[in-house]
Design goal:
Elements: E1 2-6, H1 8-14, E2 18-21, E3 26-27, H2 28-36, H3 42-45, E4 53-56, E5 59-61, E6 67-68, E7 73-77
Parallel strand pairs: 1-7
Antiparallel strand pairs: 1-2, 3-6, 4-5, 4-7
Length: 83
């Protein structure tokens, strides 16, 4: 099972903090497309036009062609600002 953790603003917009899904493996892009196919609010919140980071097993990913293993822990993180 793949575990997905939605952080901060994403958690609020999706009304979901964590979930486990059946995942046979694939790229970050394939995972994001799978989630967007659920319709709203997933489609607009996880739109490629929005800025957010993806971490796999606590490591920030900079390339959406990276493979996501079936048993990974993925975190979706919105941009962080502060001062």
């Amino acid at each position: 099972m793949l575990t997905i953790n939605y952080m901060a603003k994403l958690r609020e917009e999706l009304d979901c903090s964590t979930e486990q899904i059946e995942w046979q493996g694939g790229t970050v892009d394939e995972l994001l497309n799978f989630l967007r196919e659920r319709g709203e609010p997933w489609q607009s919140t996880l739109s490629s036009a929005n800025i957010y980071k993806v971490a796999i097993n606590s490591e920030i990913i900079h390339d959406n062609s990276v493979e996501v293993a079936a048993n990974a822990v993925v975190a979706l993180l919105p941009p962080v600002t502060g001062g």
